[in-house]
Backbone:
């Protein structure tokens, strides 16, 4: 290989010693021992590209490149912006922490952030609690029709996101399905105004929006659960409830974590649902961020809010993951 | 049987769709008995064991344990514990926690629980592995954890589905002795599934030999070996020479036949009824045939030619071609006198015990 290459391409066979002007002919005898020689940058790059690691990097470089461009790029722009300031339409690129001070200390943003976290964590748990039995049922009793069941579950999600939110407006609204229904039944005499335009409406709507995304990872982890473990637990004396708590639940914790994260992380940043069904009490941090990037035209503050939210959500998510991992050790 | 029945299997059928996995099984297993289910792969051993444990229901018929019908009683309420063929070790628990799993519910107290777990770990030689996680074990280690996990419960009935199949020879033999010892000591009823004939022969009080979802014979090991009921049973347990015969006749408790190349022989029916002598078959175990060495005399004598020779260490197996017999006769001889040196193709003289012939239903 080596000698073949050097005859074909003299550049590969000739190695400089590192001293300019002094060029040595490499011994072309393949049996001769290869002496350690200083290599040029070019030689070592081509060597690296032929190595196992080099080939690996080469193979993943196109996707790596666009992943960098598409994922890291925007984040860099946001992070950079968050340290700048804006005066009407001009961006001042001198470093400042003023945006973060505002984002983290001004009561309005703090409240919005806390509310957003509360809503997203609640939505995530509500969604998982509602989705788990469905996933469990499909996995354990779906039989031959598992595929069909999953298909049916995803059907509502073929309609647009806005459509689903608006249909909740129809259900929860002042003259909505729920109110008129309850009035017909005589449960209430005049429509309840507490159904919509508040935090609860946001939670209900979001939980419904994300249900399918929670069901799928839960279903997958339940499918992976070895049924003979449940038989063994039954054999050792556990009834259905204990079997669930001691075997099914701990072994599906990865699915639960995945479902929680899949729901929680995007819901923090949702601004359409709070806008449509949240009213004034249901405003979330993403609405504030949107305003900064839009009408208020303060990109740096918007960016600082976004970055702060991102970091705090990551911390909360990490805490939840650790707590669930601890729970897994407790359930024996 | 001397003891009272522990498990009664009455006319049990099991169908999976249109496939009949078990066909009208009947058996009674005594209290404290070591009962083995022996048979080739796919004959329904696991299926039967799972029905005793409550993991499957019979399609018809019933199973009684301790005199109580088990219909509709889930596994957790049955006085049985099972060692699963697939081990089913809990991956999220370590070895000690796996073993303690069933004890937790009994609320024995910490000291007693730990003592029992340690005892069980010692019994299966895993004392060092207590803290190792369930998903970090080798096949044989898993199997031993599964065994310990069931043993520690001290159930009335222990169902073992090939509990030693993944162990090396030495450890397996040691475990066999250990299990047998334990079973005698605490008087548990054992139902052992195996397809290792020596395991079944050496450990069991009685053996049920199964083929294709049916029980072919239930008897004590010696009886099964010496007096197999059917050709299949004989073939499955140890080697058997099936002989070409003519003029097979049954007379009272005896039978007689002419074996081409061997001569006229007689034998005992040993309690069997041969309904159709035309379909019966005569056999002799390889170890009941012996080589007659140069200079020795014997009566009767049969001559033949060595067609093949296989060396097994302490013994050698010879395939001998005898004029008039359709199949080679297999002889197993110890190597003390040089059976391992007999050249293939040489002439050989053999003799047999006159009472060694068995008649079987074909
Ligand atoms: N759930 C099932 N559905 C359909 N057929 C099954 C099912 N379980 C077992 N069988 C069939 O029933 C027959 C008996 O199976 P079983 O597992 O009892 O065999 P086995 O005697 O334990 O064999 P092995 O020694 O290989 O473990 C097999 O032919 C098997 O394919
Ligand atoms: Mg089996």
Residues:
């Amino acid at each position: 290989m080596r000698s073949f290459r050097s005859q074909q391409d003299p550049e590969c066979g000739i190695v400089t010693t590192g001293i300019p002007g002094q060029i040595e002919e490499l011994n072309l005898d393949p049996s001769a021992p290869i002496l350690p020689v200083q290599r040029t940058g070019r030689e070592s790059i081509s060597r690296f590209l032929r190595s196992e690691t080099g080939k690996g990097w080469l193979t993943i470089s196109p996707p790596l490149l666009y992943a960098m461009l598409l994922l890291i790029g925007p984040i860099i722009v946001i992070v950079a912006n968050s340290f700048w300031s804006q005066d009407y339409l001009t961006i001042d690129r001198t470093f400042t922490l003023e945006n973060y001070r505002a984002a983290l200390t001004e009561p309005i943003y703090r409240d919005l952030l806390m509310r957003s976290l509360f809503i997203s964590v609640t939505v995530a748990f509500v969604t998982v609690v509602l989705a788990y039995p469905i996933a469990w049922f499909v996995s354990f009793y779906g039989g031959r029709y598992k595929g069909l069941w999953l298909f049916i579950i995803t059907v509502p999600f073929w309609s647009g996101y806005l459509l689903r939110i608006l249909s909740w407006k129809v259900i929860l609204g002042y003259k909505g399905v729920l109110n008129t229904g309850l009035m017909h039944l005589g449960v209430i005499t005049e429509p309840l105004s507490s159904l919509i335009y508040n935090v609860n409406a946001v939670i209900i709507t979001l939980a419904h929006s994300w249900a399918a995304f929670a069901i799928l990872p839960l279903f997958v982890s339940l499918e992976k659960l070895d049924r003979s473990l449940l038989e063994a637990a039954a054999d050792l004396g556990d009834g259905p409830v204990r079997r669930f708590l001691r075997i099914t639940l701990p072994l599906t914790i990865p699915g639960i974590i995945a479902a929680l994260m899949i729901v929680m992380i995007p819901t923090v940043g949702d601004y359409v649902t709070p806008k449509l069904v949240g009213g004034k009490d249901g405003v979330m941090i993403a609405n504030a961020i949107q305003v900064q990037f839009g009408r208020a035209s303060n990109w740096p503050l918007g960016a600082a809010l976004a970055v702060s939210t991102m970091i705090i959500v990551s911390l909360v998510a990490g805490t939840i993951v650790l707590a669930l991992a601890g729970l897994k050790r407790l359930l024996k | 049987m001397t003891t009272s029945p522990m498990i009664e299997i009455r006319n049990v059928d099991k169908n999976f769709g249109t496939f009949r996995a078990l066909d009208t099984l009947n058996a009674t297993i005594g209290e404290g008995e070591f009962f083995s289910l022996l048979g080739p792969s796919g004959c329904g051993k696991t299926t039967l064991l799972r029905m005793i444990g409550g993991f499957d229901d019979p399609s018809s018929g019933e199973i009684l344990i301790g005199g109580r019908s088990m219909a509709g009683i889930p596994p957790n309420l049955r006085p049985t514990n099972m060692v699963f063929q697939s081990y089913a070790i809990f991956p999220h628990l370590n070895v000690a926690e796996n073993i303690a799993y069933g004890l937790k519910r009994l609320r024995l107290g910490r000291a007693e629980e730990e003592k029992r777990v340690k005892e069980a770990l010692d019994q299966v030689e895993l004392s060092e592995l207590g803290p190792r996680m369930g998903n970090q074990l080798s096949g044989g280690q898993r199997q031993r954890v599964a065994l310990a996990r069931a043993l520690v419960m001290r159930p009335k009935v222990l169902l073992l589905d090939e509990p030693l199949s993944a162990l090396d020879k030495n450890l397996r033999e040691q475990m066999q002795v250990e299990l047998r010892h334990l079973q005698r000591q605490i008087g548990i009823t054992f139902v052992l599934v195996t397809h290792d004939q020596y395991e079944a022969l050496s450990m069991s009080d009685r053996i049920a030999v199964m083929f294709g979802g049916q029980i072919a014979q239930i008897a004590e090991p010696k009886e099964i070996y010496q007096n197999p009921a059917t050709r299949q049973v004989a073939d499955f347990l140890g080697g058997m020479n099936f002989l070409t015969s003519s003029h097979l006749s049954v007379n009272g408790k005896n039978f007689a036949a002419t074996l081409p190349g061997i001569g006229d022989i007689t034998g005992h029916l040993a309690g069997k009824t041969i309904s159709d002598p035309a379909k019966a078959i005569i056999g002799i175990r390889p170890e009941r045939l012996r080589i007659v060495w140069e200079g020795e005399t014997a009566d009767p004598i049969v001559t033949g030619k060595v067609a093949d020779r296989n060396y097994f260490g302490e013994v050698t197996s010879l395939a001998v071609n005898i004029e008039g017999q359709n199949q080679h006769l297999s002889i197993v001889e110890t190597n003390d006198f040089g059976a391992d040196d007999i050249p293939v193709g040489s002439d050989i003289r053999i003799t047999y015990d006159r009472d060694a012939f068995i008649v079987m239903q074909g």
In short: Helices of chain B lie at 45-53, 95-104, 110-123, 139-151, 169-186, 197-203, 221-226, 231-236. Residues B 45-46, 85, 161 surround magnesium ion (ligand 2) (CB under 6 Å). Chain B touches chain A at residues 53-55, 74-76, 80-82, 84, 86, 88, 90-93, 97, 101-102, 104-106, 149-150, 153 (CB under 8 Å).
